[in-house]
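can u do me a favor
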């Protein structure tokens, strides 16, 4: 049914008035958008009235068209003004929340902290330095001679297979222990010698809660006259007391290593489970911590040291496992996983 001119005129004015009131009272941008769609949308009121234009007499079309355009302009202006109001309110909220006092001094750089393995390493370096030991370093890419041959490990010895070596195309390898630094220390300084060698080592083995392909060790050696197992035990007890700062249960059992004779395994009762068994200690209650022994005469001869005049002890300590025991870490993978949430605890 076609609306009369007077009815169309009145309907346009009522729609404009109603929409202006709704725009003014809109509390959110969603309310404002709903008011816009109702008045100016494709199926909105003004578009519906525009469809009636073709049914009007020619003399009325111009007046109704002008009325529709004026209503549209008024509504668009009201919507734009209301949008500015919402934008200003949002900006004020943001400014209040992000307000800065520019007169305050800058906070400065955020300070970091040492990795737990680095802490352990530095404490041991300080301890052994106070006992007269030098702290030596060596290359992580080693020769076969320094990593195996000079340590009394012949080419067909099973220890080469047991250590799961990462071999390089050059014929060199990623060192499987820090013992090559002992060889280089003997070659460079000769006896008497007290030294430790902390550093990163690599083993091509499966990763689990207690094994990593990349981890940290500390090797120690003392070469002098009349060195005995008693000297070795004294230094090991001193080391453990300094690191754990409490009594720990240890056991010393025979062990075979090509570079020491006699050789021992010094184990520590697992501090994660208290000896009851867990994945870290492989349910045994004990963690291998300190392979040690008196330096094999062949190792001394390979470094041009006369074993009839000099002898000594050597030990190898797993810094990574030591950190796990000290801080109660039950998964070795966490230490080098790069998760800052874990590392920030220390």
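np, heres the sequence
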């Amino acid at each position: 049914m076609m609306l009369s001119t007077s009815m169309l005129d009145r309907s346009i004015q009522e729609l404009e008035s109603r929409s202006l009131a709704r725009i003014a009272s809109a509390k959110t941008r969603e309310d404002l958008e709903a008011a816009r769609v109702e008045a100016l949308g494709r199926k909105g009121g003004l578009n519906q009235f525009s469809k009636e234009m073709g049914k009007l007499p020619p003399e009325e079309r111009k007046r109704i068209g002008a009325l529709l355009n004026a209503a549209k302009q008024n509504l668009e202006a009201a919507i734009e003004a209301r949008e500015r109001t919402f934008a200003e309110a949002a900006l004020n909220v943001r400014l209040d929340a992000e307000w800065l006092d520019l007169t305050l001094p800058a906070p400065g750089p955020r300070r970091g902290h040492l990795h737990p393995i680095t802490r352990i390493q530095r404490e041991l370096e300080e301890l052994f330095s106070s006992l007269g030991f030098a702290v030596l370093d060596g290359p992580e890419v080693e020769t076969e001679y320094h990593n195996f041959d000079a340590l009394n490990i012949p080419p067909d010895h099973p220890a080469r297979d047991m250590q799961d070596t990462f071999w390089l195309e050059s014929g060199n390898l990623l060192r499987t222990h820090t013992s090559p630094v002992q060889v280089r220390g003997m070659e460079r300084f000769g006896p008497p010698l007290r030294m430790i060698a902390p550093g990163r080592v690599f083993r091509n083995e499966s990763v689990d809660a207690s094994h990593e392909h990349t981890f940290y060790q500390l090797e120690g050696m003392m070469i002098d006259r009349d060195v005995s197992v008693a000297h070795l035990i004294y230094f090991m007890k001193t080391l453990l007391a300094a690191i754990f700062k409490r009594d720990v249960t240890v056991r010393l059992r025979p062990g075979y290593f090509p570079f020491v004779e006699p050789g021992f395994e010094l184990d520590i009762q697992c501090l994660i489970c208290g000896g009851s068994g867990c994945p870290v200690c492989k349910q045994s209650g004990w963690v291998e911590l300190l392979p040690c022994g008196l330096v094999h005469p062949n190792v001394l001869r390979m470094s041009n040291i006369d074993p009839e005049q000099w002898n000594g002890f050597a030990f190898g300590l797993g810094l990574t496992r030591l950190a796990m025991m000290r801080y109660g870490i039950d998964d070795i993978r966490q230490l080098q996983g790069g998760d800052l949430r874990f590392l920030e605890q220390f």
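The longest helix spans residues 58-97. hope that helps!!
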